[in-house]
Amino acid sequence: MVHAGLDHVQLSFQDVDEAAANQWAGTRAHAHKLNLAALVRRHRIGFTVNVVVHRNNLDRLERMIAMAEELRADKLEIANVQYYGWALRNRRTLLPTREQLRASLATIAAAQERLRGSLRLDYVLPDYYAKYPKPCMGGWGRSLMLMDPAGFCMPCHAAGAIAGMRFDSARDRSLAWIWQQSEAFNKFRGQDWMQEPCRSCDRRELDFGGCRCQAFLLTGDASATDPVCSLSPRRGMVDAILAETQTMPHSPLIAAGDLVYRPDPK
User: Fold this and answer.
1) I need a labelling partner for 134 at 20 to 30 A (CA). Which of 3, 59, 205, 206 fits?
2) One-character DSSP codes across 7-51
3) What is the distance between the alpha carbons of residues 169 and 149, in angstroms, rounded to a whole number?
4) HSE (CB half, 13 Å, CA atoms) of 23?
5) How far is CA 255 from the centre of its chain?
6) pLDDT exceeds cutoff 80 at 256
C-alpha cells in the first residue's frame, strides 16, 4: 500500500486496557491494532492514533497518552463521544461528569506542553459542555460532500438522522448538480433558515447556528438553534442532561444490560 501511494494511517482505539477496548469495539481487536501500529512504524508515513473517550475510560487518559508515545505516533487525537446514532441511545452511560472533564483538560494541557515538537495532541470536547456550538462540518453544504455505499450524497455524516430530509443519489444526478441545486445541500445554506437568536447573533458566521443534526435530535426541529449553545432558549434541556450525569457511576467494564447495542445485520 505504501508503494501505491499511501502516506498516512489513522488507527482508532477504544481504550488502553484490552478487555475494556474489546468490549467497546464489540470484537477482539485491541491486540491486532497494536500489532498493526508496529507495522505502520516500519514505514516513513504519517501515523495518527485516535482514542475515543467517554465517562468509563476518561480516567485512564494519562495511560492513553503514554500508549501513543510508545506506538511512536506523530499525532494523537483524543475524541470524546458525540451524541448521535447509537451513542445518543447510550448517552447516560457515556457522557462524562464535569469533574472528569475538568481533570482531563489539565492532563491534556500538561501533555501538550511536555510533548510539544514531538507529538501533536488534539482534544475534542463533548458538545454538551461547550458554551457555544461547533461550526457543523464548517457550515452545512459549504465544504464537504459525503457519499454512502448506496450512492446517496449528504452534507455530513449524521445528516440521515434528520427525518424528512431527501438526499439525491450520484446514480441519478451529477455531483455538480447535487452540490449546486439539490434541496438537501441548499436547505441550511446562508442565513434565511435561521431562527432567533441565531438570525441576529454576531456568531452566526462563526458557528452557523451549530449542528443541524443535534438540533433535530434534541428538539425535533432541524432549524432550531443548537441547544448546546448558551444563548439557545432550549439550553435548559442540555443542562438537565448534564445535571443527571453528575450522579451516574462509571466503570471500566459495563454490564450488557446497561448498553443498547446496534442490531447485528447478520
Assistant:
1) 59
2) -EEEEEES-SSHHHHHHHHTSS-HHHHHHHHHHHTTSSSEEEEEE
3) 10
4) 16
5) 24
6) no
